[in-house]
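Lab notebook, bench 4. The sequencing result for the construct came back, and we need a structural model before the next group meeting so we can plan mutations. Quick request posted to the team channel:

Model the 3D structure of this chain.
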Amino acid sequence: MNHFTPGGSIRARPQVLKIVFKNKEIMYVIAVYDVASKRTGKMLRLCRQYLHWIQNSVFEGELTPVRLREMELEAEKIMDLSYDSLIIFTNTHVHRVERRIIGREKQDIDQFL
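Done. Here's the predicted structure in token form:
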């Protein structure tokens, strides 16, 4: 497991990549929502507080488990759980995900990730 220590050193084990900052694991997150049109604006604003917008109703970024849970709880307050959905994909790090774009990219986020 990779650990970043305040002194700037990194300890690594082969084939396992995790970032730990102040004892908090960082996860790569992709979130996709499908909500009624009257709730779309609220979900958009919520997801933008936590992640980077990449396409209509699709967001990505890196969060701690605590920040991810905060986002989930806030989303549940906005959503009608019998009608709306929020799908969250997580991985230990962005480098374990292959990302290909076909067509025009909505927003260039390489500077963030």
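DSSP finds two helices and seven strands in the chain.
Will bring this to the meeting.
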